[in-house]
Design a protein that fits this description.
alpha+beta; 36% strand
Length: 177
C-alpha cells in the first residue's frame, strides 16, 4: 500500500498490520504509526573575517537536535499482536487509550514543557521537548485516527553551584557576616 495519503487509508493500514505493533513512543505515549521522520544532525560552523575580508573557520559546534515526526494515533486494536507490542514496550496502561486520549496527553506534555524521551525504529532521542504540534486534517472521516506533525527540540540542561567565592572568603576573614 505504501505511505497512506489520507486518514481512511492510514486507519486501514494500521488495522491490517502494515505498520507493525509499535513504530514510536513519545514519552509514555504509544504511536500507532510513524509515517514520516525528519532528524537532521547539524553543526554550527563559525566564520570570522580576517584581513582583506577573507573568512576563516575557527570552530564547529554541535547544535541541539530538532526532529519532526509525522504520526498517526488510532483507536486501540484489541489483538494478540497489539497486546504483545504493548507488553514489550512496557506500556500496558497506554494500550487502551483512544487517539483523543493520546492527543490530549501530547498537548499536556507540551503545556507542562516536560522533558521526555522520543523513541523511533531507528534511534532514541533523550532530553526532548514538544515544540510544535500541527494536526493534519483531510475531508475524510476523522473519527478513528488523528494525524499530526510533531516537532521536538533537544534541551540541554545545566546547573550552577556557587562554591567558595568572595563572600565565603570574607566570612572566614571577619568571622561571619
Amino acid at each position: 500500500m505504501g505511505i497512506p495519503t489520507n486518514i481512511s487509508d492510514a486507519v486501514s493500514a494500521i488495522r491490517d498490520g502494515e505498520f507493525g505493533t509499535m513504530d514510536a513512543m513519545i514519552g509514555d505515549i504509544m504511536v500507532s504509526a510513524l509515517i514520516g521522520l525528519s532528524n537532521p544532525k547539524d553543526l554550527m560552523v563559525t566564520r570570522k573575517p580576517v584581513e582583506e575580508g577573507y573568512a576563516i573557520t575557527d570552530a564547529a559546534v554541535d547544535v541541539p537536535r530538532d526532529i519532526t515526526l509525522t504520526v498517526v494515533f488510532a483507536n486501540p486494536e484489541y489483538s494478540v499482536d497489539a497486546a504483545l507490542g504493548a507488553a514489550l514496550s512496557g506500556n500496558i496502561a497506554g494500550f487502551n487509550d483512544t487517539w483523543r486520549d493520546k492527543r490530549d496527553q501530547l498537548y499536556q506534555l507540551q503545556e507542562d514543557r516536560e522533558i521526555i524521551t522520543v523513541q523511533t525504529h531507528e534511534n532514541l532521542y533523550e532530553n526532548m521537548i514538544v515544540s510544535s504540534i500541527s494536526p493534519i486534517w483531510d475531508n475524510e472521516d476523522n473519527s478513528d485516527a488523528w494525524f499530526a506533525d510533531i516537532a521536538f527540540q533537544e534541551i540541554t540542561t545545566v546547573s550552577t553551584e556557587a562554591v567558595g567565592g568572595l563572600l565565603d572568603k570574607a566570612k572566614e576573614v571577619v568571622g561571619g557576616l
